[in-house]
Design a protein that fits this description.
Helix 1 crosses helix 4 and helix 2 runs parallel beside helix 3. This protein has 4 helices and 2 strands; from the N terminus they run H-H-E-H-E-H. The protein is mainly alpha-helical. The protein is globular and about 40 Å long. About 15% of the residues are buried.
């Protein structure tokens, strides 16, 4: 949770400062994902919330699960980005996402 909150704060700060016109991010859903999580359900919940991007802090999940999430997001037209714990405080990552 600490990494998630740090990433959200970095994204919000960056969105307010990277352009002449500040951006306001809309947070619509937080969901813990495990190896047993239903990826279709995750994407459907994101779509129902009108999310355009899913950011994941998915270290520890098997690569095949992360790939499954990526493919499901691509199929649904939702941007997916897996952020490592080491990247949550990097402005370059926040700028890339924003």
């Amino acid at each position: 949770m600490a990494e998630r909150d740090t990433l959200v704060k970095m994204l919000e700060t960056t969105a307010q400062t990277v352009s002449k016109k500040p951006l306001f991010l809309r947070r619509v859903l937080y969901q813990q994902v495990t190896e047993d999580s239903d990826v279709k359900e995750l994407v459907n919940r994101a779509r129902a919330a009108k999310a355009v991007t899913i950011l994941g802090l998915l270290e520890g999940l098997p690569d095949n699960k992360i790939h499954e999430i990526l493919e499901a997001c691509n199929a649904a037209g939702i941007m997916f980005r897996n952020v490592s714990r080491l990247e949550v405080e990097k402005k370059s990552v926040a700028v890339d996402v924003v």
